[in-house]
Design brief:
The chain has 274 residues and is of the alpha+beta class. The protein is built from eight helices and 15 strands. The strands form three sheets. It has an eight-stranded mixed sheet, sandwiched between helices. The chain has a five-stranded mixed sheet with strand order 12-11-13-15-14, sandwiched between helices. The longest helix is centred in the N-terminal third of the chain and has 25 residues. Bound molecules: L-MYO-inositol-1-phosphate (LIP).
Length: 274
């Protein structure tokens, strides 16, 4: 079987993702300092988009198209755009959340991120092969990066998932924007609670996943994520030696996303699906 390093320009994709994520992060931070307002609502009244989300996504897309015109693009704000009609399409798609943690961004909480991944194959988490992932928090300037077979990194520090101790696991979760799903979310949380020393709800899934990779959280689970929420962070977790999945035996996705070291992963999965 071919490995990503053998058959895709992983280093080129990785450098490009880092460069563009830094640039996009600087723009998001600049716009935040100028003041942010809701531009529109999406799935529910709580699911908002700001002008900055759109502007940052447009910048990322423009930069990626300039550098790699044959690649596809799947962005939170603009949806799926296939590779251009002219010329030969590559098998790479960029999966982008321009501002993950938009509600934190809106409220001025310094916990939001630009998330950029490059995947090979159909841009569906059940089928794709994640090649590179970059998550940058513009407020703290931390940049988490991973590439298939090259590990997960924060600056020069190689990341590794944690193993929880006797006091239990520090577990993050999230709740989607649709109130109709919250009873189910709370029922699952209740079942996971006995595993936890405490629970965190950070509000930016890509950073939850980056923090699992960095051992700042022991585990994470959430229902309702979109591909752009977990594409980059998911690779950080697996390259940091963790496990990433969804429903039992399945890929991460709308139904469920779970990330943790192997043993805790199984325990969270058992609790969620008991
Ligand atoms: C959000 C997440 C948040 C999650 C929401 C949503 P957005 O992304 O990262 O943690 O709970 O369901 O997906 O809308 O800020 O890009």
């Amino acid at each position: 079987m071919r490995t990503p390093a053998e058959s895709a320009p992983v280093d080129e994709l990785w450098s490009l993702a880092i460069e563009v994520a830094r640039e996009a992060g600087a723009l998001a931070r600049q716009r935040r300092s100028e003041g942010v307002e809701v531009a529109a609502t999406k799935s529910t009244i709580a699911d908002v988009v700001t002008e900055a989300d759109r502007e940052v996504e447009a910048l990322i897309r423009r930069r990626l198209v300039e550098a790699r015109p044959a690649d596809g693009f799947l962005g939170e704000e603009s949806g799926l755009a296939d590779s251009p009609d002219t010329g030969e399409a590559s098998e790479i798609t960029w999966v982008v959340d321009p501002i993950d943690g938009t509600v934190n961004y809106l409220y001025g909480l310094p916990h939001y991120a630009v998330s950029i991944a490059a995947v090979r194959g159909r841009p569906d988490p059940r089928e794709w092969e994640a090649l590179v992932g970059v998550v940058v928090n513009p407020a703290t300037q931390e940049l988490f990066r991973a590439a298939a077979g090259r590990g997960a990194w924060l600056d020069d520090t190689r990341l590794a998932v944690s193993t929880p101790g006797e006091a239990g696991a520090l577990i993050a979760t999230g709740f989607g924007y649709d109130p109709a799903t919250h009873d189910g979310d709370f029922a699952r949380l209740r079942r996971v609670m006995p595993l936890a020393r405490d629970i965190r709800r950070g509000g930016a899934a890509s950073l939850d996943l980056a923090f699992v990779a960095a051992g700042r959280l022991d585990g994470y689970f959430e229902r309702g994520l979109h591909a752009w929420d977990h594409a980059a962070g998911g690779l950080l977790v697996t390259e940091a030696g963790g496990r990433l999945g969804g429903m039992p035996g399945g890929a991460p996705g709308r139904e469920m996303t779970i990330a943790a070291g192997a043993e805790l992963f199984d325990r969270i999965s058992d609790a969620v699906y008991r």
